[in-house]
Amino acid sequence: MTLPTPNLDDRNAQSLVDEAKQLIPTYCPEWTNHNVSDPGVALIELFAWMSEYMLYRLNQVPDAFYTRMLNLLGEDVLPASAAQTDITFWLLDDAMVSIPAGTEVATVSETDDPIVFATTEPFDAVAPQLLTVQTAGLGGELLSLDEDLRRGPIPVFPSLTPGAALYLGFDRSLTGTVLDLRFGVANQGIGVDPTRPPVRWQIYTAESWVDTDVIADATGGFNRDGIVRVAVPMVEQSAALSAEPRFWLRAMLVEPEGDQPTYRSIPQINAVSSSRVAVSVPAEHSVATERERLGESDGRPDQRFTTLLAPVLELRPDETVEVVTAAGLTQQWERVDDFQESGPSDQHFRWDQTTGEVQFGPRIRDREGNYHQHGAVPESRAAIWMTKYRHGGGDLGNVPAGSLTQLRTSIAGVDRVENLGPASGGTDRESVENAKLRGPMTIRAAGRAVTAEDYERLVRQADSSIARVRALEPESLGAPVRLLLVPEVGEKHGRQPSIDAFALPVGSMEQVGDYLEERRVLGTSVELLTPFYQGVSVAALVHAAPARPPDVVRDRVLAALYAFIHPTSGGPDGTGWGWTDDLNAATLNQLVADIDGVERVDVLLFHWDARNGRRVGEAQEIIRLRKNSLFLSGVHRVVVR
Which one is the CATH code of 442-529: 3.30.300, 2.40.128, 2.60.120, 3.10.129? Predict the structure, then answer.
């Protein structure tokens, strides 16, 4: 049980009025009319009401007190995290390009300040070269087509069985590369819809085949001469599948979806070539500050210095505190989480990401009266420097695709830049209200992953960009604990975020996995997954109340539907759609009917293909939520009469 909140003064307005009236004969005996109509009594009641309000404020424990108490218990308010995305640099030619780490790219706005991202890794590589063209059926051996291609047309697929594929082997990794694959088509693949052919482009990694993004397919699914432009994701690629080390990209025939037509004849090509047109480099929402002087040491314990900019991000190995003594000796100090294990000569400091504060070791007295220095103290007159730090983070960095277009430093060979996908993972500093709820749970479980609630809480601690977590019990004895992770989606994605907006930030899986590895119970294992986002589209016929503008009513209805059917902020309580809740037309009828200006409404539900952006199947009264899924709004249609 929790301790009751102390009531420092339990008097209310009426008790204050009664107490004041009892004192009237003592201090003002000539005042004899104590009725409510008396002006003096009215003033007493007014001041009693004001005093009650002041007592209410007195009884509220301030947020700063809660924050300090959490600090004493070893818990800090979670800092802001930086949004991440891949920046695509479009190249002028196919020559070698060098993009240094820290290259800044920003948004362009005439009214708002630019939002700046910086690359986190350097990119320095020559373009990959296409070496071989091969083919294989589902589960079959690779068969080289190089000689056949020199003599004439070759079939793209060995058969029309799903799983058959065309394999392109390159001399180096394609990771982060945007390729133009130019095909000469000899015979068309009759039967397919050129706008959505049943072909999936994938690269081979050390573990499996991973889908690539097809930016454009001018061939219409191998129906005409043209270019297929693919963007290879930032995953580690493996050279395997053949005797010669090759890095593979394939076009695989897949099962058609719904009413999607498939091939009736195998397309043939007579030429294929490749060229690199762009490279993608991971970036984060941050601006680097080089060598900032924080101040000068006075030689006393527990000194604190603050950076000019805040919030700041987690320090990297090349980002640290540098102490320059009066004699000119330079010392690089080490960051620690606390000073518990720090001795008097250990050059340690603490780093507060929320405020940018640097703290040096305190001097603490024990019960016998002896003083112990935890961590060394910079000598008097020593200059305190930050070699480098990064300022940024917050929900502001969750910008949509195509918004980062300004290259702030020119790079040879680069024509333009953009982010092909939305930035995600940016979260603001944890609110005190959330810290009040999280702190007691953390202390109670002592930081160990035992129950499902422990796993869910620890995931949020590991990565503040995770909005929701669901822990699933092992399916059998010895099976792993499965965790479904849902990232935070900011307002930048609008009221109808796409399925790509719910992609986990780069490195999030590794960060959460490493954090849980240190806290899981011996003998257990963890599997990190993402839920299936089940698209749904609503068709609503609304009859507006008299004299209500139809456009206004329509906007209100759409806003309510998009807010209600949302993975992280939807549902009846606004905390995200329930993991087991079906969607019923009757529920939406009631939701829309309660909107101001709506007289009556009829609602129908449709399945929605979130990847291809279209309705699927017939209208339904209820849509069942699949296992381990969350509903995601498609395009809703509202007609107001």
Answer: 3.30.300
